[in-house]
Specification:
Blueprint lengths: L16 E5 L16 H15 L3 E5 L16 H11 L3 E3 L6 H8 L6 E3 L14 H8 L4 E4 L10 H5 L6 E3 L1 H14 L6 E5 L4 H11 L5 E4 L4 H7 L14 H14 L2 E3 L4 E4 L9 E3 L7 E5 L1 H12 L3 E5 L12 H12 L3 E4 L2 H10 L7 E2 L3 H8 L5 H8 L2
Parallel strand pairs: 1-2, 1-5, 2-4, 3-4, 5-6, 7-8, 7-13, 8-9, 13-14, 14-15
Antiparallel strand pairs: 10-11, 10-12
Helix pairs in contact: 1-2, 7-9, 8-9, 10-11
C-alpha cells in the first residue's frame, strides 16, 4: 500500500488562512526551557513554504498530556518564542485554540505573521475526536495541512477531524516520512534488515508478526529479548520478562522459520545485579540467578553489526540496552555505529533510538531519522494511519 497523498505542490496558499497541524510536543527541563527543539525545526520547511507563498499559517499542536484541562506549564507560549527565533517571523501565541476571540485574531493576522494556537489537548474533545471541536478548529482555516507525522496514528479532532472538513494537504515533513517508510516497505533493496529493541515485547510483537513476512532478518535486543530467550528455555535470571507473551513469541519464532526470515537473539549479555547505573557490570553467555540482562554482549554486538552491514535497507526501532547508563551503552552504540556505516538505505524511528542517535551525534549519518515513534511502528506493522487516510479521503 503506497501512502501517496496530495502535497503542498498542489496548494496555492496566497491569501489563505492555512490551518496546519504540527507536532511541537517538545521536552522541557526543570527550568521551564525547551531541551530539544528538533520537532520545531522539523516543521520549518512547511511553515516557510506557506509564508513565501503568501499564506497565513495558523499552527495547532499538543504538548504533553493535560487530559482536557488547562495546565499552566503545558502552555505553548515558550514554543512560540523559540519558533519566532528560528523563523525570524513574528509569532503570535494565543491563549486559546477556538472561539470568537481566536477567530478574530486569525482574521486580523498580518501577512508574514505566524499564529500559534494554544495546546489543543486543553480540550477533552481533542483526543476523543470530537466533531464539534474539529468544526471549531476548521473555522480558523481555508485549507488544512497535516505536518504532524508523530500524531497521525491518532484519530484526534485536530488531526483527522479537520481533514474531513477542509481541503487538505500533506506538509513537507509528513511527505518525507511517508516516502521513507514506503521505501522500506514497498520495494526495498535487499537484504532488508530490521533491528528492534526496547523494553516490552508486547509493544513490538505485532510489528515482528508483520515484518517476518517481508524482511530478511530481524535482530532483537533490549528488554524484549529476554521474553524470547525465556520462551526458548534459556536462563534469564531476574531480567525483564512478560510471561503472558511467551506463546505469542513462540508463534513468531515458528513463523520466522517458516518464512525464511532470520530472527536473531542475543548470544551473550552484559548483566547487573540491580537496575541501577552504578551496579557492577559483567559479561556472560547465560544469565545467572540474581542477575539481569541490561545490554547485549560483545559477541552479539559483532553478530548484529555484521548483519546490519550486509543490509541494503535497514530500519532500526528501539535500543539494545539501558543506553542512558554508560556501563550498558555499548550494545546500542555498536548497533547505531553499524547503521551509520551501512552503505544501504537507513531509517531510524522511535523516541529512544532517535535519542541514542542524538546522544552519539550521528543524525547526519542516517538517511532518515523519523519524528514519530508510535506512528512509525504502526506503519511497520502494516497499519493504515488515520491521519493519512483522512487526507486521502479529501483527494
Amino acid at each position: 500500500m503506497s501512502h501517496a497523498v496530495r502535497g503542498l505542490e498542489e496548494l496555492d496558499p496566497a491569501g489563505k488562512r492555512v490551518l496546519c497541524r504540527v507536532d511541537f510536543n517538545v521536552p522541557f527541563g526543570d527550568d521551564g526551557k525547551i531541551t530539544d527543539d528538533t520537532r520545531i525545526r522539523a516543521a520549518l520547511p512547511t511553515i516557510e513554504r506557506i509564508l513565501t507563498g503568501g499564506g497565513r499559517p495558523v499552527l495547532m499542536s499538543h504538548l504533553g498530556r493535560p487530559k482536557g484541562e488547562v495546565v499552566a506549564n503545558l502552555r505553548l507560549s515558550p514554543v512560540g518564542m523559540r519558533l519566532q527565533e528560528l523563523t525570524g517571523h513574528p509569532v503570535r501565541s494565543l491563549r486559546e485554540s477556538i472561539g470568537e476571540e481566536v477567530e478574530a485574531a486569525v482574521a486580523g493576522a498580518e501577512p508574514g505573521t505566524v499564529t500559534l494556537l494554544e495546546n489543543v489537548r486543553f480540550h477533552a474533545g481533542e483526543t476523543k475526536g470530537s466533531p464539534e471541536l474539529a468544526a471549531a478548529f476548521a473555522r480558523l482555516g481555508d485549507v488544512f495541512v497535516n505536518d504532524a507525522f508523530g500524531t497521525s496514528h491518532r484519530d484526534h479532532a485536530s488531526v483527522c477531524g479537520v481533514a474531513r472538513l477542509l481541503p487538505s494537504f500533506a506538509g513537507l515533513l509528513l511527505e518525507r516520512e511517508l516516502a521513507a517508510f514506503d521505501r522500506v516497505l514497498q520495494d526495498p533493496a535487499r537484504p532488508l534488515v530490521a533491528v528492534l529493541g526496547g523494553a516490552k515485547v508486547s509493544d513490538k510483537l505485532p510489528v515482528i508478526a508483520s515484518l517476518v513476512e517481508r524482511v530478511d532478518a530481524i535482530l532483537v535486543g533490549g528488554g524484549m529479548a529476554y521474553t524470547f530467550l525465556a520462551a526458548q528455555g534459556h536462563s534469564i535470571g531476574t531480567s525483564l520478562v512478560q510471561h503472558d507473551q511467551q506463546d505469542a513469541v513462540r508463534a513468531n519464532l515458528a513463523r520466522a522459520e517458516a518464512t525464511g526470515c532470520r530472527l536473531l537473539l542475543p548470544v551473550d549479555h552484559v548483566v547487573g545485579e540491580a537496575f541501577a547505573a552504578e551496579t557492577e557490570a559483567r559479561t556472560v553467555d547465560e544469565i545467572p540467578a540474581g542477575w539481569m540482562g541490561l545490554d547485549i554482549g560483545p559477541r552479539t554486538r559483532e553478530l548484529y553489526g555484521a548483519t546490519i552491514q550486509s543490509g541494503r535497507t535497514v530500519v532500526w526501532n528501539g535500543p539494545m540496552g539501558v543506553f542512558e547508563w554508560e556501563s550498558f551503552r555499548a550494545g546500542t552504540e555498536a548497533v547505531g555505529r553499524a547503521v551509520c556505516d551501512c552503505e544501504g538505505y537507513t531509517v531510524v524511528g522511535g523516541g529512544d533510538s532517535v535519542a541514542a542517535i542524538e546522544l552519539f551525534g550521528w543524525a547526519d549519518e542516517i538517511d532518515h531519522v523519523s519524528t514519530g515513534g508510535g506512528a512509525s511502528l504502526e506503519l511497520l506493522e502494516g497499519k493504515a494511519l488515520p491521519g493519512i487516510e483522512a487526507l486521502r479521503a479529501r483527494d
